[in-house]
Amino acid sequence: MWRALVEDRRAAEYALVNALDLTDLGELIRFSGGAVQSGIFTAVLGGAAQPQNFAEDSNLQRILSGALSEAEVAAAWKSIRESGRYGKGDVQCLPLEVLAVLARTNGIPACVQDIAGRAVLERALTDPAAGYERVYGSRPGDPLALTEFMRHIDGLNKALIDAEGRVGGELPKATKIQLVNLGVHDGALTAGISLGNLDRASHVGVNYAGMGSSVAGIGNGVDGVAEIFKEAQRGFPGGSYAVVMVIGYRAPSLWGVGSMMRATGAAENIASFLDGIQASRGTRYPPLEQLAVFAHSYGSTAIAEALQHGSLNFKVDNVVTYGSAGFAADTTYEDLRHGIKDTGRLYATQARKDSLAQVPIKAQEGTDFYLSDRIDPRQIGAVELSAEGGKGEKETNVHDMFVPEIDENGAPSDKVGYLSPGTSSVREIASILATGKLRSST
């Protein structure tokens, strides 16, 4: 009889915790604050009752197997959540090798990826060799590999600290900073930093970099997406925003930008991340009003391949290319519709003074030199937006994604990137994030 009473109390407790977990307050308690300790009453009543071992949970084991699609991962995590047994503390206490898998698994909530990714990052900072092993799955083969790994880890850590330093200043006080997608692609470290709550924002933008990009330099991209975030907040305060700077694939060097190899190799990885956002949101969180993808330089080449990839299950709302290195020569707008909603659009811009973007694209009028036969997105019907500056705006005059207003010597910079403060291009991109349209159409 006493055992039956204990079991009844346990069932009632799980039901109560589950009901709480379905509320905003429950999420704050469970994954943003102190964890609700399920089992607290049964431990008192039953005496011998043992705490649940999250690492042995069957749904978690399915996720860790790597055999699930992003939608299946999201469904498995939903089952974990609805069991009412585990909270933030349980995630934090998982073995580091488990956290390393969760940090790179798409389909779980961003708040969980953030917990896992930060744990792996902390280990890498305090014990580089152990961190390397967790991320890459093996010990570093030589000292140079470890040195290069730490260069990227230090860059990532600095970018996170800098992003968090913006909160309460240039970013609203409640802005969440999340570390997502910490993993490896083709031997290169990957990571994303979200400005804003990726699990709850009504409008999400995902920004991909181009040639020469790496996690070591992710801070420059975070500076750029911060401008998108601020312009969206300033111009369209009715929405809630999250803008993610992602280094999600091994980018080519300048001399490799003429090849499609890195783009085709990146397609599945990019598709997985984009699917993961929508899959995880669909199981619990408020629906997305807008998922927009922004892609600079060779990032647009890779994005075009991802939008056509057979593994992509969810379509995005809008895509913006800026300073594009071009799409594969046989790409059509209809091909891209595999990944863009029928109500969405492909937008593109190339600054008149950006002399580098056209180099990989097949010769057009006035162009005598090119590295490949790729095509400009505007040639297949992309809606063009301006990077030339309007009244009170800056004109983009280099190929760079972002250039600070003050240079490294403390002097005003004469260079202006696409996402630099006050450019027409960053304001148009913010408008597309907020409304799906250019400013002239709103």
Shape: globular
Tally of discrete structural domains: 2
Q: Mean pLDDT, rounded to whole units? A: 88
Q: Determine the strand fraction and express it as a percent band.
A: 5-15%
* Widest sheet, order of strands: 1-2-4-3-5-6-7-8
The CATH topology of the largest domain is given as Rossmann fold
Number of strands: 8
> Which CATH C-level class of the largest domain is it?
Alpha Beta
Which sheet architecture does the biggest sheet show? Answer: 8 strands, mixed
Q: Segments where pLDDT lies below 50 for 5+ residues?
A: 1-15, 21-25, 27-51
CA distance, first residue to last residue: 68 Å
Structural summary, described in words:
By secondary structure, the chain is of the alpha/beta class. It has 2 domains: 2-104, no CATH class; 150-441, 3-Layer(aba) Sandwich (Rossmann fold). It contains 15 helices and 8 strands. The protein has helices at 2-21, 24-32, 40-46, 58-64, 70-82, 88-92, 96-104, 110-126, 128-136, 143-166, 218-235, 261-282, 298-307, 333-336, 424-435; strands at residues 177-185, 188-195, 203-208, 241-247, 290-296, 316-322, 340-349, 383-384. It has an 8-stranded mixed beta sheet, sandwiched between helices. Strand 3 (203-208), helix 11 and strand 4 form a beta-alpha-beta unit. Helix 1 runs antiparallel to helix 3 (40-46) and helix 7 (96-104) packs across helix 8 (110-126). The longest helix has 24 residues, at 143-166. The protein is globular and about 60 Å long.
